[in-house]
Amino acid sequence: SQATASPSAIKPVDTTGPFEEVQLTGLTPGMTYHYAIGAAGIDHTFKTVPTGSFTWVDMGDTTTTSCEAYMAQTHSLAAAQDPNFVTHGGDISYANECGTQAVHQYYLDEQVWSTSAAFQPVWGNHEYGSPQPDSVPGAVRDTLENYKGRSFITNAQAVPNDTASLINNPGCGWATKSKVNTCLGEDWGYFLAGHVLYISYPEPWPGAQSNWGTRADPIMAAAQADPNIDFIVTYGHRPAYTSLNGQESLDIRNAVNALAAKYSPTAAHPKGKYILNIAHHVHGEEVFKPINGLVNITNGGGGAGTVNYNTPPDPNSLFRLRHTGILSSTYDASAHTMTVHMLCGPVIPGAGKDTCTYGSVVYSQTFTASTPPTPQPGLNTSLTDGVTSVQTGNSVTYHAAVSSPSTSTGADGVDLSAVIPANATVTDAGGGAESAGTISWEIGPVSPGQTVTKTFTLQVTGGTSLAVSAHAAATDTACTTSGSTCSATDTDTVGAVPPPFKQWIGNQSVETDLTGWSGKYGPNAAVTVTRDATLAHTGVASIKIAGLTGAKNLSSGVNDNPRWVLSTTAGKVYTQSAWVDPTFVGQQIFMKLREWKGNTLVTDKTVTLKATSVGWQQLTQNVTAGGTGNQFSFAVYGVMSAGQSFHVDDLSLTSPS
């Protein structure tokens, strides 16, 4: 598959780019896909959103290798965890201290893991900060355009003062002297991974964090009520609690405590799911005992220096480390647990503070869900032919499908079969094996969220009812899981044989020549009518109507010559149809049937197609003859300009015999 990128909706301003983005749709959750960027791109893999167990890394306050060479070790440590995704708590590149080139360098640094793992950041004060006293010469104020333009925030939300006219943070525009906000939105967001809901929170812009608490409440309420969600995690830049005085955000403290009182596990609410809030900003690692049932962790040791905590520390503080570090967390879907490991990062030259071994676990904590999710059905089976009645002699096409609606577990060793009744015969088994009135297919494993469909065709031989059933089986317990459906039935009524019809067209699909179709409707030298043996609806050929140089919005096509119907019967209904293949969306194609009494036009009826897609499509209409002994003229034409065309095939004109 291919997808074409387009210019980024938000354009960074640190370099000229180019900056392009693309969204891929229709992917299966919990899968690994290969991808390459450009025709000569390097083959990489990425994992779509996990449906079961996963590993996740969190970091913050990182800076870049253009400022501190040891930052390469921080990203290598993250890559070694093989994460499904990485959250970042802000203060990403420190370009306002290290120089503008640090923005681009950060996104190069993280490629050791970001080519295969999703990146879900939230913003810190350095993303819009001004130069500091210790900044490198020439450092300039940073802008959120550089980060909002490079990252995609899932379910992105805007804070109240991020308006269309705000050109300063959380908006943008001042750097390019814009009069309007050039980075509106993407101030925080949320996403679901496996059975864990993640919600980021914004910077302390005016009213932002109280507004976040109000808007996060219903999101958490829905997760709390959802039996398939184990945990809720929040993350952002400023800490609600820290042992560095003056660096806590009372606004975020109030917001998370209010949510914890409703959704965290306490004696009053033992089944609460809001178990963890991760902050950054303070350059060190710190863990707090549960407050209102909520564990707060500060993970600000990405690499931009280390802090000296106050003495005595915050009374709720359990663990502190004045060293670089990241968090690595493993969610186990079968055990319904989440284990958070604090990992020792690289040594900062000359820091002289706490010591630990690079990559070692310095602190761990495991959370266990109070009530495991209710199992979802293991396998569903469906069967449909799209109709409710058929006639003897008709062909009927069925679609039998098996699917796994679960987001965490699929089904193994799946087989699918269709039972064929005695009043039908198989004309196309769809690749299945036929035996004693059944068609069977070996499906194999069905992944979480996957649907496998098999198509087969029957011909009705009689009776008053046509009942076909489909049955699935699995080598595991998928079919015995509560809610699973491993059989389905489709029943149609069978009607009498319709009266015989006469086909008036003797060369319906131009398989050998254009006999009967040599006329040009709307004759024009800039339009050609030819037989095309490279494209057909059925058989090997079709009629091609093409616009040549000079054609501009011409209406032209093909008509019968000589006419197929030379003597009509008054009051008889004639059914006209043709299959057409437009070459562009919006193209108009017409099918016309005219009744002539000599040179006098008796009846003129047209059906129009305005293409909403390309590919073969059928035009059909009924015309009642106005007189006896008249002639019909049959035409198909379209509107086209130079270089445009369409095809016609399987032309038909029938009436009761």
Structure, described:
The structure is a single chain. The chain is mainly β and 657 residues long. 10% of the residues lie in helices and 37% in strands. It contains seven helices and 38 strands. The strands form eight sheets. A seven-stranded mixed β-sheet has the order 8-9-10-11-13-12-14, covered by helices on one side. The protein has a six-stranded mixed β-sheet with strand order 7-6-5-15-16-17, covered by helices on one side. A hairpin with a 2-residue loop joins strand 34 and strand 35. Helix 6 packs parallel to helix 7. 42% of the residues are buried.
What's the short version?
The protein is mainly beta.
Give the tags.
657 residues; 37% strand; seven-stranded mixed β-sheet; single chain
Radius of gyration: 34 Å
Q: Average pLDDT, to the nearest integer?
A: 93
Number of DSSP strand runs: 38
Secondary-structure class: mainly beta
Please state roughly what percent of the residues sit in beta strands, choosing from under 5%, 5-15%, 15-25%, 25-35%, 35-45% or over 45%.
Answer: 35-45%
Shape, principal axes of CA atoms = elongated
Q: State the helical fraction.
A: under 10%
Q: Uncertain spans, ≥5 residues at pLDDT below 50?
A: none
Largest sheet: 7 strands, mixed
Identify the strand order in the major beta sheet: 8-9-10-11-13-12-14
**Could you tell me how far the N terminus lies from the C terminus, measured between alpha carbons in angstroms?**
50 Å
Q: Please count the helical segments.
A: 7
